[in-house]
What we know:
Layout: E1 6-11, E2 13-17, E3 21-25, E4 38-46, E5 56-61, E6 64-72, E7 74-79, E8 84-88, E9 92-96, E10 101-107, E11 114-122, E12 133-137, E13 144-146, E14 152-157, E15 159-162, E16 165-168, E17 179-185, E18 190-194, E19 200-212, E20 215-217, E21 221-225, E22 230-247, E23 255-257, E24 260-262, H1 265-276
Antiparallel strand pairs: 1-21, 2-3, 3-4, 4-11, 5-10, 6-9, 6-11, 7-8, 7-10, 9-12, 13-14, 14-17, 15-16, 17-22, 18-22, 19-20, 19-21, 19-22, 23-24
The site of fe (iii) ion has 6 residues, from β5 and β10.
Amino acid sequence: MASRKIQQIIDALPASDGAGVKLMRSLGSAQHLRVDPFLMLDAFSSDNPDDYLAGFPSHPHRGFETVTYLLEGHMLHEDHLGNRGDLKSGAVQWMTAGRGIIHSEMPQQENGRMRGFQLWINLPAKEKMKPAGYRDIQPAEIPEVALPGGGRVKVIAGVLELDGKETAGPVQGSSTQPLYLDVELPPNGEFVQKIKIENSAYLYPFEGSAAIDARVLRTHQGGVLGPGDSIEVRAGTDGVRFLLLAGRPLLEPIVQHGPFVMNTRAEIEQAIRDYQNGELTKTAA
Ligand code: FE
């Protein structure tokens, strides 16, 4: 039993995406700042409508999954398949672009706070061209487990193991085996979790600070976790709220061009051509 230590700290950087939505980009702020299979992690949080109102108008994706977790706010998703998802506070949208999806993600509020995350999870080569899929996960479908020493865990994907009891999140069974937890700890609170030894793991505090072994992660400092089969987190004196992500690394080449993530340059060129010709979302004849 080895507890994982922090191998690398990634400072989230201010960025802008869509039609000018201001956000903090953690994973994906540079090509090498990825934790296989996770390609990108954006955190958005603002009380100023000018930072988010323009939203993410119609745009394509191919080759991976996008997961949007809304902490506060109201966002509408619409895609070419006719899916319409009304994301309210606490909801998750799990979108598998596969071969291609064209969608928009637009704020439905004109004031107030908009806060949440978008995570990009890669797909293995053999699944990059599968048909697009979409799941709207309501807050009530996300189990919330109280921790014995105070605090709580929301299980969005994968399985939480606590005192020998397993709690499964609504998303299971994908080939990258994602674990996606939203953990809140009181001041000096502790959280221990098993993580499969072969999977990579990333911890992102978005309120307060947390210590792993002797190293401290402050708000918006992501920690890439090293080898081991568990993680032990201790909250700072103000408590902490963090995302814990883990998944099976694909160990495949990555070629990314904006919203397309494939294995080779030729596949990217194909994706661009398909999008230009209106064939990104067409299933093979
Ligand atoms: Fe998108």
